[in-house]
Amino acid sequence: MRAVRRLMSRQDMGLPVEPLLPGWVRSLFSTRLNSDALAAYSCEFDTVWVEEALDNGRWPAPEGDNDPDRLFADYQGRLNTPWPMHERTGAGVSP
Question: How remote is the C-alpha of 91 from its chain's centroid?
Fold first, then answer.
């Protein structure tokens, strides 16, 4: 188990995530198979990443062929129209 934790701790595996942090190690089972002992363990790792979530109540609204949400259009998923372009902000200034 130490070897697995040594190899994987603080790695990101080439993914857009924070480096892996070692977590709990648990024994899954331990038994005998003929004259040999056999044991299996789970070794947890934690990480963090940022995802762009849809606004509450919105559906994907792809804007072109390279949009990551294009998949929803390709498979006839429910879609929203894209938000209109933000052209100005009206902010009143009081003296």
Answer: 37
CA dist 9 to 6, 14, 17, 41, Å?
6, 13, 13, 17
pLDDT in tens, the chain (95 residues): 889 999 999 999 999 999 999 999 999 999 998 999 999 999 999 999 998 888 899 999 998 899 889 999 999 999 998 877 888 887 777 66
Q: How far apart are CA 61 and CA 82, in angstroms?
A: 5
pTM attached to this predicted model? 0.55
- What's the CA gap between 80 and 57, in Å, rounded? 10
CA–CA gap between residue 54 and residue 69 (Å, rounded): 11
